[in-house]
Structure formats: structure tokens, C-alpha cells
Design brief:
Elements: E1 6-7, H1 10-18, E2 24-29, H2 34-49, E3 55-60, H3 66-70, E4 78-83, E5 86-92, H4 97-116
Parallel strand pairs: 1-3, 2-3
Antiparallel strand pairs: 2-4, 4-5
Length: 117
């Protein structure tokens, strides 16, 4: 069970994110990005708390620009919320922890209700 954010390369993106049976939150970030550093600890907590329910994946856009370009990522951090290989939600910019947690729980509610019907 994965209980921490995983760093995903362009080469591994399809297998890790698009083919995942679990919902995936992808954090497009870069080492020089201040707001990215602000949300990183929150994403680490979420990865631990939701281990087995959601995967938190981090894509360093400096080293792995391919998927960021495919998805039209213009500002970072951008979080893409994937379920069954499709984007369910897009969040651009850093958020306070409570707001980010609200989005994650809404995302999982939507995903879980879609999977049970």
C-alpha cells in the first residue's frame, strides 16, 4: 500500500496514473515553485491518511514536461484529479489545507458513488 506521494516520470505516467485502479491526485510542481512547497506537506498527509483509497502522484514539470503540456498545465501547482484515467477535477494554485482536504473528500465521494452505481 502506498502511503506517501510517488514521483512519476513522463514514461511512467500512463501506467501509474491513467491505468490506476485507484483514484489518483497528480501534483504538477517544480522545485523552484514556492506555492508548490506550501501544499507538499498537505499532500503527504493526504497520501498517508487515504492510503489504499487514493494515490498522490507528483510530476516535476522541469524534468517531465510531456504530460503537463498534454494537459495544458500553465500555472503550478496544478492538481489533476483522475478516476479511471479521466480528469474529474482540476485545481490550479495552492490552497489552504482545509480547502484542499474538502476538494479531496468531494473527489472521493464522487468517485465512490460513481463506482457503486
Amino acid at each position: 500500500m502506498i502511503n506517501e506521494p510517488i514521483h512519476v516520470t513522463d514514461a511512467a505516467f500512463e501506467k501509474t496514473v491513467l491505468q490506476s485502479t485507484l483514484p489518483v491526485i497528480v501534483d504538477f510542481w517544480a522545485p523552484w515553485c514556492g506555492p508548490c512547497k506550501m501544499i507538499a506537506p498537505v499532500l503527504e498527509k493526504i497520501a498517508k491518511e487515504y492510503a489504499g483509497k487514493v494515490i498522490v502522484a507528483k510530476v516535476n514539470t522541469d524534468e517531465n514536461p510531456e504530460w503537463a503540456m498534454k494537459y495544458g498545465i500553465q500555472g503550478i501547482p496544478t492538481l489533476l484529479f483522475f478516476s479511471n484515467g479521466k480528469i474529474v477535477h482540476r485545481q490550479v494554485g495552492a490552497l489552504p489545507e482545509r480547502a484542499l482536504r474538502d476538494i479531496v473528500s468531494q473527489f472521493l465521494e464522487v468517485v465512490n458513488s460513481a463506482n457503486t452505481h
